[in-house]
Specification:
single chain, 346 residues, five-stranded antiparallel beta sheet, four-stranded antiparallel beta sheet, elongated, binds zinc ion
């Protein structure tokens, strides 16, 4: 019966909210919250009781009592009383749900987006082996070497599990929404996606999620994709292979190529372009050879721009209809790809 089912679900949601409320009250005791709001008080007889002027009504003689061990307040002047949530609702004119959001923000540890993305990436990495569909998808995209998968920190977002993991670490819904890890409905934004972390200077700046279901487009979290993928490891090479997609990158990495980077799309942003031009080097442009020629046009335009900045370019010609990923998926190997590099045209 659908009515019974939805009632059960509602009860589950409520119990999650109750748990969250209890955790918040422990993390941010009422007395601490009041002191942060500049409430001054003196001990009122018993060890855990304090009294001061009521923040909820005008008065000159203190009648606002806080019991720190019970985590409750009561005012003998205006008759109001309750817990931290009640106080926030009354003093800030918020609904219960608004006060929950407000207190999550107030009690959250100082937000370091890179650290939260790091926790998300680690969590996704831990999920990969638990979901056969994810490993099956990687195999289908030519990725089978566990060491390479680990080196690239590839993970899997099954959906509906990251939120619980990160809020249990004390991160607020507000922060997770701001980073794009949760959608506006507060559900995991990545659902059934293979995830690659994108790093800059050793810190994760974004996550790339590739849906394992053909219907959904690939996507990044909102915000900058950062510079070229894994650029710090590559910049010292005099010759660099540039690919457009992370699955292209991953199969070449697995095949042993290391002088390798990825522009995460065919159009380079300004900082990616500057990186490629930061010293004299040769760039092997290895964009898709798609049927409508758009990859090759992008490659040609980029070659001209780079040459104008003194960078030597070579265009790697893959067999028609291929990208580096499909080249390896369909049986190409490192030796064959090396021949393509050697045959690349200026
Ligand atoms: Zn009062």
């Amino acid at each position: 019966m659908p009515a019974v089912f939805s009632y059960a679900r509602l009860r589950r949601q409520n119990s999650t909210v109750d748990e969250e409320v209890e955790k918040l009250k422990q993390r941010l005791p009422l007395l601490d919250y009041l002191r942060r709001q500049n409430w001054t008080a003196r001990p009122a007889g018993h060890g855990s009781e304090f009294v001061g002027l009521c923040p909820l009504h005008p008065e000159t003689r203190p009648s606002f009592y806080v019991n720190a061990s019970k985590n409750l307040f009561y005012c003998h002047g205006c008759g109001q009383g309750g817990d931290l949530f009640r106080f926030v609702q009354l003093s800030r004119y918020l609904s219960f749900h608004q006060s929950l959001t407000y207190l999550q923000e107030q009690s959250a540890p100082p937000a370091d987006p890179a650290a939260v993305l790091e926790q998300a990436a680690t969590f996704y990495q831990q999920q990969l082996d638990r979901y056969p569909e994810a490993l099956h998808y990687l195999k289908h995209r030519g990725l089978h070497d566990p060491a390479s998968i680990k080196e690239l920190r590839i993970g899997y977002a099954p959906g509906a599990s990251l939120r619980r993991h990160l809020t249990a670490q004390g991160h607020s819904f507000h922060l997770l929404r701001r980073l794009g890890l949760l959608n506006p409905q507060d559900c995991d934004a990545f659902y059934r996606r293979v995830v690659f972390p994108c790093c800059q200077a050793g810190r994760i700046v974004n996550l790339y999620g590739r849906s394992i279901d053909a219907a959904c487009a690939h996507r990044f979290l909102p915000g900058s994709k950062g510079g070229l993928y894994a650029w710090e490891q590559v910049r010292q090479y005099p010759e660099v292979i540039l690919v457009e997609g992370l699955f292209d990158y991953a199969v070449l990495w697995q095949a042993g190529f290391r002088h390798l980077t990825c522009s995460l799309g065919t159009s380079l942003n300004a900082s990616q372009f500057r990186q490629l031009c930061d010293r004299r080097r040769s760039v092997y442009l290895t964009f898709d050879v798609d049927a409508n020629g758009s990859g090759q046009q992008a490659s040609e335009r980029l070659a001209h721009r780079l040459q104008a900045h003194g960078i030597a370019t070579r265009r790697v010609l893959l067999p028609k209809g291929h990208d580096p990923n499909s080249f390896f998926v369909e049986g190409g190997d490192a030796r064959q790809f090396q021949s393509l590099l050697e045959a690349a045209q200026p």
